[in-house]
Amino acid sequence: MGATGMRDYSRPLDLKNGRVEMAHGAGGRAMAHLIETLFARRLGNEWLAQGDDGAVLPAPGHGRLVMATDSHVVSPLFFPGGDIGCLSVHGTINDVAVMGAKPLWLSAAFVLEEGFPLGDLARIVDSMALSAKQAGVPVVTGDTKVVERGKGDGVFITTTGVGLLPAGRELSGRRAQPGDAILVSGTLGDHGMAIMAGRDNLGFESPIVSDTAALHGLIEALLACGAELHVLRDPTRGGLATTLNEIARQSGVGMLIQEKALPVSPLVAAACEFLGLDPLYVANEGKLVAICTENDAETLLSAMRKHPLGAQAAIIGSVHEDPQHFVQMATTLGGKRIVDWLTGDQLPRIC
Amino acid sequence: MKYIDEFRDGALAMGLSEAIRREAKPERHYHFMEFCGGHTHAISRYGVTDLLPANVEMIHGPGCPVCVLPIGRVDQAIRLALENDVILCAYGDCLRVPASGGLSLLRAKATGGDIRMVYSSADAVELARKHPERQVVFFAIGFETTTPPTAVAIKQAAALGLKNFSVLCCHVLTPPAMMAILNAPERIAIEGFVGPAHVSTVIGSRPYEPFAEQYGKPVVIAGFEPLDVLQAIRMLIRQVNDGRAEVENEFTRAVDRDGNRKAQALVGEVFELRETFEWRGLGALPHSALRLRPAFAGFDAEKRFGSVYQPVDDHKSCECAAILRGLKRPVECKLFGNVCTPENPVGSCMVSSEGACAAHYTYGRYRDA
Amino acid sequence: MCLAIPAQVVELREGDNAVVDLAGVRKEISLALVDGVAVGDYVIVHVGYALNKLDPEEAAKTLALFAEIGQLEASPTAH
C-alpha cells in the first residue's frame, strides 16, 4: 500500500459531497491520503499499519495453506441485507472455509470509477471492516486503482483469502460417493431475489433480505460434530443446481433430490413465480451444501440446526451411481425431472 | 401461494393419475397435443409424464411464441438496434434466439447494440418518456395473452404524445396455428387438444368450437398448474372414450366462453390482421398475425424505419419445423443434444425453455439414457 | 398460454394502476385491461397487467372435484 502519515496534506476528505477522482489512483499524495483516511483507518490492524506493499504474517507451523480469491461486481452496490463490501468479505472467507481451512487473512483490491461518491465508498469500507471484525479475519493488505468515468461500474472489489488447513482433513468436490446424504444449511434463493428486487424495471417490493454471511463458524461446528464429511460448498452464482451439477461431475456420480425437502421461503417462492425463475438456480451467499456418509446425516443435520446460520437446514437427497452424472429431482407432484446445468443467465420469462 | 400451491398438490395429483389410469382403455393409444408452451414447460418441469400410463402420449405443439418467431424477425430487431441506433426493448425469452450472422439479441448487445430486457410493455413506454432524444422500439412478440398489454402501451404512448416510441409487431394468433396443425398434409394422430390457459382468459372458449365441430377433435382448456393439466387429460380421455368432440373448460376459475371483452376491444382498436405471416416451422399462414392499424401507423417501427422482413432458411438439419408440428420428437433431430443444446441453440425449439427440445433436454433427457 | 400468476389486489393507485400481493411480495401492475376490480379480488397477472379476475368459487369447485376424483374407487361411476 505505501501509505505514510501525510500530515501536510491539507484538505480532509469530503465524505458528504466528495467524489473519486483520477488523482486518487495515481499513486501520489491524493491516493495516500485516501488510503490512510478512508481505508486504513476503517480497516485498521497491525498489518495495515505496517504500511508496506505486502503484509508480513506469521507462517503456520504445520499443515497446508488454502488460498481463494473472488471478484465482486454486484449491482446494485447496496441491497437489502448487505452491500458489495460485506459480500466481498463473506464470499472469500467462505471459499476458504469450505475447504476445511481456518480463514486467517484477507486482501482487498479496489477498482474505483472516477466520480464515485466518497460517502458511498466510506459506507462500503465500514461494512467490510465490520464484517472482517465480526468474523475475526482482518484485511491485511490491499490496492486501489481509479479508472475514468464510464470505464467502471462504480466499484469492483477483489478479495483474496488465506487459511490454514489441518493435517488429515480432505474436503473436496471429488469425494461424493454413492449412498452419501446431501444437506443444505437453509433457505434457497434469498440473495439472488433480494438483488432482483432492487433492479429497476423488475422492481417488486418485498421484505426479502440477502443471506450474506461468513460461514466459517458454522463449518467449524460441522467439522467438530463427528460426522464424516466429504464435500462442503457454498452455492453462490448459479444456485444449488449449479453446485450439485459441479460436484456430480467432479465426483463422477449422480444425485437424486426431493423437491418437497428443499427449504425455500414463501417470499422467495412468490418472487420467483412473478418472474418465472427457478429458486434452484438463484444465488445464495450464506448457505452451505454438505455431503456426508449416509449414517451421519442426522448427526450433521442436528449440528447444523443448532447453529444460528443453519436453523433451517434439511436433508434434501442422496448420491448414487450414474455414468451420466445427472442430478435428478423427484417433484412435489411425484414425477421426476433433471435439474440441469444453468444455461446462460437465468432470464425472467413471460412464457 | 393461494391458487397456486393447491393446484400442485402431490396427493391430489396421485388421485388424478389413478383416475387416468382407470379410464384410459388399455387397448387404445391416446395422443393429445398440448398446444401451449406453458403447458409443455409445466409437464416437463413437474414430470407429469411419469404420472400418465404408457398409452397416453403428449405431443408438444407450436404454442411458444419464441419458437415460432422466424429468424428474419429477430434479424429485424437486431438491425434496428445496430443500424438505427434505437433502444430495443424485448422480453427476456427472446434474447437468446439465434439469428443470422451468428448473432442473437444478447450477442448484438455485446457488440454494442442498446438492447434492454423489459418485464412489461409499460417499461418500454417509460424508457421512451425518459429519453426523448432516443428512439425506443418495443419488440412485441407473443400470442393473444401478450397482445393486449402491447395495445395498452401504444395507446399510452399516443396519449402522452410520444414521438420516439414505436413497436415491431410480431403478435400471432392461436386458432390459425391450431388449424395449420389439423390441416397438415402429413397425418399425425392427434385425438384432442389441451387448450391454452391464459390465451383463453382473453379470447374465451368460443374460438375453439370450430375445431371440435368441423374437425371432430375435442378441446379441453386447461389451467396452468400440473393438476389442471392432469384433469384436462382425463377429460379428453373421457371425450374420446365417449366418442364426443366438444370444447370443455377445465380452467373455469379464469376462463369463460366470451373471454375478456375489454381486452379484445382494445386489441381490435389498435391492431388489424396481416394478410399473411411467416411462422417458423409452420410456413406462411393467412390471417394469423397482427399489425398496427392505419390510425396507429405512426407507432409502427417497420414503417418508421423502413424495416423489411427477409425470410431466412433454417439450418438444413434443423428439425424445428417437424417438431413444432408434432411430427417428430426432439431426439429424432440429428442435431439434438450434440450440436444443438441450450448453450448453443441452433433452432428456436431449443432456446425457449418451453420449446419441446429445451424442455426435453433440460428436464427429461435422462429418460433417453 | 404465457406465464401468468394469480395475485391479490391490495391497493388501488392512480390511473389504472394497482398493487398486487403474492404471499408477501408486492408489485405494481396495471388494471387497464379489466373493469370492476376491487381490493381483495384476485387477478391473473401477465407482464405487468391484470388479464382477468379469478373466480374464487370456481377455484373451490375445481379443487373439490380433484379431491373427489382422488377418492373414487376402481368401479367406474358415470360423472
Descriptive tags:
A: alpha+beta; 60s Ribosomal Protein L30, Chain: A; Phosphoribosyl-aminoimidazole Synthetase, Chain A, domain 2; 2 domains; 7-stranded mixed beta sheet; 4-stranded mixed beta sheet; 9 helices; disordered N terminus; C: about 80 residues; alpha+beta; SH3 type barrels; 5-stranded antiparallel beta sheet; 5 strands
CATH level 1 name of the largest domain in chain B: Alpha Beta
> Any idea how many domains of chain B?
2
- Please state roughly what percent of the residues of chain C sit in beta strands, choosing from under 5%, 5-15%, 15-25%, 25-35%, 35-45% or over 45%: 35-45%
Helix count, DSSP H or I runs of 4 or more residues of chain B: 14
**Helix proportion range of chain C:** 10-25%
Helical/strand content category of chain C: alpha+beta
How many individual β-strands of chain B? 13
- N- and C-termini, Cα separation of chain C: 28 Å
* Shape descriptor of chain C: elongated
The name of the CATH architecture of chain C is Roll
Our count of helices of chain C gives: 1
Fraction of residues in H or I helices of chain B = 25-40%
The count of domains of chain C is: 1
Rg over alpha carbons of chain C: 17 Å
Poorly predicted ranges of chain C (pLDDT <50, ≥5 residues)?
none
Description of the molecule:
The complex is a heterotrimer of chains A (351), B (369) and C (79). Chain A has helices at residues 29-43, 46-50, 84-97, 118-135, 190-198, 216-224, 239-251, 266-275, 297-306, and strands spanning 64-72, 78-79, 82-83, 102-113, 139-147, 155-165, 181-184, 229-233, 254-258, 289-292, 314-320, 327-330, 336-338. Chain A is of the alpha+beta class. Chain A has two domains: 22-53 and 62-165, 60s Ribosomal Protein L30, Chain: A, CATH 3.30.1330.10; 181-338, Phosphoribosyl-aminoimidazole Synthetase, Chain A, domain 2 (Alpha-Beta Complex), CATH 3.90.650.10. In chain A, the strands form three sheets. In chain A, strands 8-10-7-11-9-12-13 form a seven-stranded mixed beta sheet. In chain A, strands 1-6-4-5 form a four-stranded mixed beta sheet. In chain A, strands 2-3 form a two-stranded antiparallel ribbon. In chain A, strand 2 (78-79) and strand 3 form a beta hairpin. Chain B folds into two domains: 1-68 and 175-259 and 317-369, HypD, alpha/beta domain 1 (Rossmann fold), CATH 3.40.50.11750; 83-171 and 266-304, Rossmann fold (3-Layer(aba) Sandwich), CATH 3.40.50. In chain B, 36% of the residues lie in helices and 16% in strands. Chain B has 14 helices and 13 strands. Chain B has helices spanning 10-23, 37-46, 71-83, 105-110, 121-130, 147-159, 174-183, 198-203, 209-215, 226-242, 261-270, 301-304, 320-324, 356-364, and strands spanning 30-36, 56-63, 87-90, 115-117, 136-142, 165-171, 192-195, 219-221, 247-249, 271-273, 276-279, 283-286, 290-292. In chain B, helix 6 packs across helix 11. Chain B starts with 9 loop residues before the first helix and ends in a 5-residue tail after the last helix. Chain C has a single domain (5-71), classed as SH3 type barrels. In chain C, strand 1 and strand 2 form a beta hairpin. The longest helix of chain C has 16 residues, at 56-71. Chains in contact: A-B, A-C, B-C. Chain A binds chain B through residues 201-202, 260, 266, 269-270, 273, 275, 324, 326, 328, 330-338, 340, 343-344, 347-351, and chain B through 1, 4, 8-10, 13-14, 17, 37-38, 41, 44-51, 64-66, 91-93, 95-96, 106, 117-120, 123, 126, 142, 146, 226, 342-343, 352-354, 361-366, 369.
